[in-house]
Design a protein that fits this description.
transcription, single chain, globular, DNA binding, sigma factor activity, RNA_pol_sigma70_r2, two-stranded antiparallel sheet, mainly alpha
Amino acid sequence: MITFAGLCVQEIVQTYSDMLIRIAVQQTKSMSEAEDIVQEVYMTLMKQKKPFANESHLKAWLIKVTFNKCKDYFKSSRVKKTVPITEDMSFIAKEEQIVLAEIFELHPKERAIVYLHYYEGYTTAEIANLLEINVNTVGSKLRRARMKLKTILEEGSKV
């Protein structure tokens, strides 16, 4: 049996699939593409030769690879100009679905930072490391995203 950071592949899939799909959905706005991307992440994991120091290292690696696969998706010819958000997202809590539509209006890099900070609880330094960008850039993008979300939510509540 193949194990990574003390977990077998089945345990990894059960533990991290929902999180990875949420990341891919909020990046691609497509459930089917998100599922394909997560499958690619697991295929990449199976090819991984270097051991993981611990489970948090494995989680960070999975998140980083998911974001990279999403970037690859946007570079590929599979991308359509617009993707409707009409697919079944029942795996996401109703409260999250309400805010998710507003989050989709943010730039993909801002969405990634918002997701990692508020949904996964990462600090700005950890996000900077995961996304390989400057800590100050993470802080400014997070502030900008908060301001945009506040404006979007305020405009929505006035209607």
